[in-house]
Amino acid sequence: MRLLHWDDKNPHSIPPGQPYKWGDKNLFFGPDGKAYAREPQDDGFFPYTSAEPLPLEPELKPNPRTPRKMKRQDFYPSRQADQAVWLENFRLKLALYAAALGLSPQRAGDCIADARWLVYLIVSWLESVRTHGKAATSALSQAQTGSGPLSLPTFTPPALPDGVLSRPAGALNRIFELIAELKENGACTEPMCLDLGILGSVEPAPDLKIVRPEITATALANGVQIGWGWQGWAKFLDQCEIQVDRNDGKGWTILTFDTTPGYLDATPFPATLTKWKYRAIFRLDDAQVGQWSADAIVSVG
User: Fold this and answer.
1) E strand or H helix at 80, and its extent?
2) Residue 9, Cβ neighbours under 10 Å: how many?
3) Residue 42 has what DSSP assignment?
4) Is the pLDDT of residue 261 over 70?
5) Residue 170: which residues within 8 A CB-CB, separation 6 or more?
6) Of 195, 192, 202, which is closest to residue 86 (Cα–Cα)?
7) Domains contained in the chain, number
8) Any idea of the CA torsion for 74, 78, 84, 85, to the nearest 10 degrees?
9) Which of 108, 113, 279, 292 could be 98's S-S partner, Cβ–Cβ 3.0 to 4.6 Å?
10) 91 and 196 in contact (C-beta within 8 Å)?
11) Which residues partner with 225 through β-bridges?
12) What DSSP line would sit under 112-164, residue for residue?
């Protein structure tokens, strides 16, 4: 089995590389709460056949949903002084909630040690380094243009406080990994998350009635490059549906449902000069939301 990520394509679909679709029997959630996909060598793998409908031609329907819950911004402060305060609060509160969250003493202790080590580096060690840097600059100035006896400063790091141990590289990454697990843990209630400081400030969702992608179309040697972006709303949307009108009497047809900005339409160019038109609309929960983009027109052939 293979760990599944949001923008993964299905290498076993027919044709290969199609997006995964809802109801795929080879997709499942593991005991760790993460999504997985069965591979052909795994027990219980359901072979894909050409008779299966691909996710490129779903029924288009209006979005009956109300906007999603408001998202929360990043919880970790950008200012170093605030980071030290956050780390102190987190390690103190984690010690209180560790048992309720089902954390082993070893796992909780390691994370608390990481936090204490980072606080030492931010508050004591970094300040000492900066002070030494000023002394070194002053000594260099004296060496160049000053007078009198010259003594080059020697850097001596501040002693570790009682109970603080040097930790391996990646301490903050380990803390963030634990936080990601806590947020998937049903035992970590919202009041606990707020007390631990692992929920950021509330960010309101956009008005999904008016969101609208902006697209461009550029003819290249190997196809038409469709440029598009999330307009800053990536966390509230799922896909961008792109349609094309090839001026062949078929009107607008679905080209793709894309999850990564930028798409190459590799359809062979016609023999004669023709104008192709592209348009796009965002999607959420398998339904269109917002408004269509302006048409992007390109001459090909």
Assistant:
1) helix 80-97
2) 11
3) S
4) yes
5) none
6) 195
7) 3
8) -60
9) 108
10) no
11) 218, 264
12) HHHHHHHHHIIIIIHHHHHHHHHHHHHHHHHHHH--S--------PPPPPTT-
- Residue 258 to residue 282: CA distance in whole angstroms: 10
Instruction: Tell me if 118 sits within 8 A of 222, measured CB to CB.
Output: no
What amino acid is encoded at 187 in this protein?
A
Q: Is residue 102 part of a domain?
A: yes
Q: Is residue 146 included in any domain, yes or no?
A: no
Domain encompassing residue 109 = 80-136+151-200
**Scanning the structure block, which residue is given the tokens 């949903």?**
65
Q: Which long-range contacts (CB under 8 A, 24 or more apart) does 160-167 make?
A: 160/120, 161/116, 161/120, 161/124, 163/116, 164/113, 164/116, 164/117, 164/120, 165/113, 165/116, 165/117, 166/117, 167/113, 167/114, 167/117
pLDDT digits (tens, 9 = 90+) for 151-181: 999 999 999 999 999 999 999 999 998 988 8
Do 227 and 176 fall within a single domain? Answer: no
pTM exceeds 0.85, yes or no: no
Q: Is residue 24 part of a domain?
A: yes
Residue type, 65: R
